[in-house]
Amino acid sequence: MNNTATEKVQCLIIGSGPAGYTAAIYAARANLKPVLYQGIQPGGQLTITTEVENYPGYPDGVQGPEMMVDFEKQAKRMGADIRFGLATKVDFSASPHKVWIDDEQLIEADTVIIATGASAKWLGLASEERLNGFGVSACAVCDGFFFRGKEVAIVGAGDTAAEEALYLSKLCTVVHMIIRRDEMRASKVMQERVFKTPNIKILWNTQTEEVLGENKTEAVRVKNTKTGETRVIPISGFFVAIGHEPNSAIFKGWLDMDEAGYLKTIPGTTKTNVEGVFAAGDVQDKTYRQAVTAAGSGCMAAIDAERWLGEKGVH
Prior knowledge:
The protein has helices spanning 18-29, 64-77, 126-130, 140-143, 159-169, 188-195, 291-312; strands at residues 7-14, 35-37, 51-52, 62-63, 81-83, 87-91, 97-101, 105-114, 118-120, 136-137, 151-155, 174-178, 200-203, 206-212, 219-224, 230-234, 237-240, 244-246, 277-279. By secondary structure, the chain is an alpha/beta fold. The relative contact order is 0.18.
């Protein structure tokens, strides 16, 4: 470890998606002089999204990466100090809180806003990675609209997969639901709704072998695990709904989280179980997972941090 001098800040923001940048905008305007570290993927999940049509204020839609550049510019204009670097370790045992960046730089912060987001789980196919953004997506609510009147496939057997299949069924002609086993993990209510939807076709005991297409998704090759038979289904969109993983590993042992690793916040606030530490965006939201809800919780976190500092008389 390098013996870099310790830096003391009032408000440290970890993560740079809609939640982190919005927190930075609000914290900067409240004169908290926030320092934001962008993390491993500056701009977060939106940088791997192409078109964003459901964020208010962009009537013609916007490219995900471009939108994140706008967020960053606005945060900088307000005076936020935005830096490249990854939080690698924390110590929340006493105030000020300690956060190490890239295992070297130690930051001591009166308040910490965690906006590290979540990462979609993928099947791990090369074709899925290559066609990501070209018909392959991990968010039906974000991208389903682009496949109106077309055939699509979705992989997954839980509540999220069922919910997304139902969402797609209202837009698409046929939704092929690819399920690895002979049963679904989704709740009975969700299963019933799926079974009752005529244009959702369930492929039991089926695994995805390859997404096919050169520059766009054209088909999927699947294999029946019982019979070994493979078939090719022509589709325009391929959705992966096998879950998300919150980026919360470095906070284990310090912050309360659920069994999946999502940070727990006090309902109606962004407060965690540690005084002066707040969580916003997808790292604590497994329900909505939208850019607009992440931005809203980033605003809440900055206001919660400002009020907490005011109550403690920290300047």
